[in-house]
Amino acid sequence: MIPSKEEMTAAMTARHGAELQERFSSATVAICGLGGLGSNIAISLSRAGVGRLILIDFDKVDITNLYRQQYKAVQVGKDKTVALAENLKEIAPYIEIEAHTVRITEDNASELLIDADIVCEAFDKPESKAMLTNFVLEKMPDKYLVAASGMAGAGSANDIKTRRITKRFYLCGDGVSDVNESGSLLSSRVMLCAAHEAHTALRILAGQYEV
Amino acid sequence: MVSINGEKVNADGMSISEYLANTSYDLKKIAIERNEAIVPKAKYDETVLCDGDSVEIVNFVGGG
Predict the structure, then answer these.
(1) What is the value of ipTM here, to two decimals?
(2) CATH assignment of B2-59?
(3) Is B6 on the interface with A (CB under 8 A)?
């Protein structure tokens, strides 16, 4: 039987404390891109009790995603937004999910991200990462942006870091490991980077802004 | 001198566009912060670097 909302809130509050749990449960976080980064970020944030997630991706689950993205073999062919929402609801049945199966562009980003307290950039292409970063920081200066660059290959886990670039812009990753050069992405290293992004989002919600 | 990605560079008086022209950065893959604020892409031409400025060029790489 699925626990009640009250039971789940009580269990999280026992661990996080009432103040922190209230900050998490009243927050809205947007996740842009639901691949290796985004699917893992979503799972961390839903487990922590973040109240509302905005999930955005135009793509469908592919067999080549399963080695590092948080989908299941039975979900191949489904929209990533739909598949991830299913998985998150199994973990956190009372989370509020707003899903958009679209490609984010400069034309629709404002509308998609307007309700977010924090925007997590979780794309794979550098052009998309740069577009979203420039857009959010220029046009939506009240948002916090958590982005990622450099998590490919089999380099050390300890090279993955979080840096605070400006007051509202955090950057996770090793900064240099490009999938187009190394040719590989390991699930564990992508998860590390996703965990940095999720942890940064939770720290911002907790009012802890230094890295 | 201007601090760019932690290195002291003699770029005083150069616009960001002029500085970038001598580098290999791909304009489509970067974001630039100057003295704790993002520099809008439309302002790279008119933003002139000054002695003491601190600049970070974030060069995004693929993978996610």
Answers:
(1) 0.97
(2) 3.10.20.30
(3) no
